Amino acid sequence: MRFLQWTVCALVLGLVAPAPAAAKPIKKQKDFMSMIVGKKLEGGDHWILISADGKLRGVSPKGEKIIGAWVWNKRFFCRNVFIGKTQLPENCGTVETEGNTVTFTRDKGKGRSVSYSF
What we know:
The chain has one domain. Helices cover 22% and strands 44% of the residues. The protein is built from 3 helices and 10 strands.
């Protein structure tokens, strides 16, 4: 009987616990500029820095230089990047923030995501 009481109590507390903050999409260039540009974005063993002049740079997980350019197109972050000597295909994606984490999702929000802390 006590087990049932504790189980019901745990379920009720779980239902009324506050929900975690939801990720907030960045839809405007001015918001992207104020929230992300100029900050070192770190993802474990790699990092990138997105500059206000339309350039980006960083270091890949394999220690290769990342260099490239970016533009804001409507509500998407579009980038053209080299990692070492390899050029990645140009891609536009969505950007979301949650706390001190930013997530970029390729292919206009339908592709693979990568998150960084700032």
